[in-house]
């Protein structure tokens, strides 16, 4: 009863903690859009520690997400961070995103092939995508 009351209180007041969100995923309860926004935005702001985000992600791997949760997570992740303004390029633009690491042979072949058809391929990447030997 108490857990249900606290969950209802959180939805009314829209206040969450990382532990609330982790607990819901652990207990196989569907997250609200607000809870997904909270966990992503608070993590990227540095307010949720890595170990709690790891626990959240482990719970998601073990218990899955609904199609709506996946769509919400994708939108929130897409809206986070900075964005490059490519509006000055009038042609069709595409991106082939790589998770990085050793052996990404697809990008080296695909980007020039697509560009040969007149499509702009900016080939953006982040510093975090490189290999970190150690």
Concise description?
The protein is mainly α and 134 residues long. It has helices at 2-13, 18-26, 33-44, 50-63, 67-79, 106-115.
Low-confidence stretches: none
In percent terms, what proportion of residues is strand? Answer: under 5%
- What's the gyration radius in Å? 19 Å
Morphology call = elongated
Q: Characterize the biggest β-sheet.
A: none
Terminal residue distance: 49 Å
Number of helices: 6
Task: Quickly give the structural class.
Answer: mainly alpha
Percent of residues in helices comes to: 40-55%
Mean residue pLDDT: 82
Number of DSSP-assigned strands: 0
SSE sequence, one letter per element: HHHHHH
Describe the structure.
- With 134 residues, the chain is mostly helical.
- 52% of the residues lie in helices and 0% in strands.
- The protein contains six helices and no strands.
- The longest helix is centred in the middle third of the chain and has 14 residues, at 50-63.
- The relative contact order is 0.10.
List keywords for this structure.
134 residues, mainly alpha, 0% strand, elongated
Helix/strand layout:
Blueprint: H1 2-13, H2 18-26, H3 33-44, H4 50-63, H5 67-79, H6 106-115
Helix pairs in contact: 2-4, 3-5
């Amino acid at each position: 009863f108490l857990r249900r009351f606290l969950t209802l209180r959180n939805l009314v007041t829209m206040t969450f903690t990382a532990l609330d969100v982790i607990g819901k995923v652990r207990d196989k309860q569907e997250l609200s859009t607000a809870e997904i926004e909270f966990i992503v935005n608070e993590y990227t702001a540095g307010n949720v520690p890595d170990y709690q985000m790891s626990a959240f992600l482990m719970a998601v791997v073990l218990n899955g997400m609904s199609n709506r949760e996946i769509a919400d997570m994708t939108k929130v992740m897409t809206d986070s961070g900075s964005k490059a303004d490519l509006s000055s390029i009038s042609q069709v633009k595409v991106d082939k995103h790589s998770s990085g690491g050793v052996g990404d042979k697809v990008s080296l072949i695909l980007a020039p092939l697509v560009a040969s058809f007149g499509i702009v391929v900016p080939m953006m990447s982040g510093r975090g995508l490189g290999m970190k030997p150690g």
